[in-house]
Amino acid sequence: MEPERLKDVFNNAFNEINQVRKSSTPTLTPREVGTILTVSTDIANVSGLPGVGYEEIVKFPGDVFGIAFNVDEKEVGVILLGEYSHLHAGDEVERTGRVMDVSVGESLLGRVIDPLGRPLDGKGPVISGKRLPIERSSAPIMDRAPVTVPLQTGIKVIDALIPIGRGQRELILGDRQTGKTAIAIDTILNQRDYNVLCVYCAIGQRASAVARAVATLREKGAMDYTVVVVTEGNDPSGLTYIAPYAATSIAEYFMEAGRDVLIVYDDLTNHARAYRELSLLLRRPPGREAYPGDIFYIHSRLLERATHLLGELGGGSLTALPIIETEAQNISAYIPTNLISITDGQIYLSPSLFELGVLPAVDVGKSVSRVGGKAQLAVYREVAGALKLAYSQFEELEAFTRFGARLDENTRKIIEHGRRIRALLKQPEFSPVPVPEQIVILLALDAKLFDSVPLDRIIDAEHSLRAAVADIPAEVRERFNADAELSDRDREIILEIARKALERFRPESKPVTITKPEVKTEAKSMQETKENV
Ligand SMILES: Nc1ncnc2c1ncn2[C@@H]1O[C@H](COP(=O)(O)OP(=O)(O)OP(=O)(O)O)[C@@H](O)[C@H]1O
Question: What ipTM was estimated for this complex?
Answer without folding.
Answer: 0.97
